Amino acid sequence: MSEVKIGNNMVGDGHPCFVVAEIGINHNGDINIAKKLITLAAGAGCDAVKFQKRNPEICVPLNQRNLIRETPWGDITYFEYRKKVEFGIEEYTEIDRFCKEVNIPWFASAWDVDSVDFIQKFNIPCFKIPSAKLTDDDLLRYTRKQGRPIILSTGMSSLEQLDHAINILEKKNSILLHCCSAYPANASDLNLRLIPFLKERYGMLVGYSGHETGLPTTIAAVAFGACVVERHISLDRAMWGSDHAASLGPSGVYKIVSEIRLVEKSMGDTNKRILPSEEPIIKRLRNV
């Protein structure tokens, strides 16, 4: 497959890299922070913003619910924390309205069937399945039934597990994201050569979801053929929260978009020829 349509964007061979600003839960449960992050992504030229949607009653394991966590709301249980950072219908309705206002599409990782139904209420351009849910066969089947394009992150998985997931999802209208799920990820664990390997193995479009710090490795992923790039974004990488340290701050968001576009411009083609810009140099240095 050479391309997939996500909203008004064609993604894949011959098209610009689709840059996703992962807001996730970096809004810390505050709709105003979410709107500032949306504004940042739109201003930087990102192609979409992404959130995460969970039903804590389903997704929080029983053995973790009563663990105490230090939070901006004081020391509370992990279960209480998960509920505080989870947006409901009021917040997502405002997100949907605001994204239309600033002209940037949004979508979400739906971590459970209830969340798929919740997100399906909105006219999102695609669904995202996070690496953590790659082995959840029921969720994969249910998400596929919604009839929207699917982006599947591949962190924390073996080739056998990925083979199985792709067999359930099917390749049509799907994009893989190569990913190392450590937060933040070490450069030595990124293994960017898997991008062309996965593309050849499965005959599918392959992008990159990065959790490392810095920009160079993500830019390299584009040179390796990533058709989608996803990076977490934050208003301040020092903010409280589990994902902020592995995120891009405001200047990084602007810089990564501009550098991806520069790399795309530089890729060229395989036609070896004398370029017009080189002709004056030939005359000066070759005495022709």
Q: Strand content of the residues, in percent?
A: 15-25%
What is the rounded distance between the termini? Answer: 47 Å
Low-confidence parts = none
Named at the architecture level, the CATH assignment is Alpha-Beta Barrel
SSE order: EEEHEHEEHHEHEHEHEHEHEHH
Strand order of the largest sheet: 7-4-3-12-11-10-9-8
Number of distinct beta strands? 12
Q: What is the fold named in CATH at topology level?
A: TIM Barrel
Shape: globular
* Mean pLDDT over the residues: 93
Give the CATH H-level superfamily: Aldolase class I
Number of helices: 11
Radius of gyration using CA atoms only: 20 Å
Our count of domains comes out at 1
Name of the CATH class:
Alpha Beta
Oligomer type: single chain
Main sheet specs: 8 strands, parallel
Q: What level of helicity do the residues show?
A: 25-40%
* Secondary-structure-derived class: alpha/beta
Structure description:
Helix 1 packs parallel to helix 4, helix 1 (31-44) packs parallel to helix 10 and helix 9 packs parallel to helix 10. It is globular, with a radius of gyration of 20 Å. An eight-stranded parallel beta sheet has the order 7-4-3-12-11-10-9-8. Strands 1-2 form a two-stranded antiparallel sheet. Strands 5-6 form a two-stranded antiparallel sheet. The protein is α/β, with parallel strands linked by helices and 288 residues long. It has one domain: Alpha-Beta Barrel (TIM Barrel), CATH 3.20.20.70. Helix content is 38%, strand content 20%.
Helices, strands, pairings?
Layout: E1 3-6, E2 9-12, E3 18-24, H1 31-44, E4 48-53, H2 56-59, E5 68-71, E6 74-77, H3 78-84, H4 89-102, E7 106-110, H5 113-120, E8 127-129, H6 137-145, E9 150-153, H7 159-169, E10 174-179, H8 194-202, E11 205-210, H9 216-223, E12 228-232, H10 250-267, H11 279-285
